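Chain A, query sequence.
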Amino acid sequence: MAASSRAQVLRLYRALLRESQRFGSYNYRTYAIRRIRDAFRENKNLSDSEKIEELLNKAKANLVVIQRQVTIGQLYSTEKLVIESPGNT
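Chain A, predicted structure.
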């Protein structure tokens, strides 16, 4: 993988994780982070540039979805789960 595309993938990975941390709901947050990590680990050894480009475009679209869902989630407040209490984090 070329250095520029590797940097682009890492930048997108970090952006996805950072945005997923903003989910208000513990369940959504942990699910999103787990799925992002699993997807990137699963495809870390890809060398086909077309497939990498396709997956990058899909990840960019997912980043937009996550950003939208975080914004919507902030509009509606919910009670924190027991696991989210200050003593458990």
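The first helix runs from residue 3 to 20. DSSP finds three helices and no strands in the chain.
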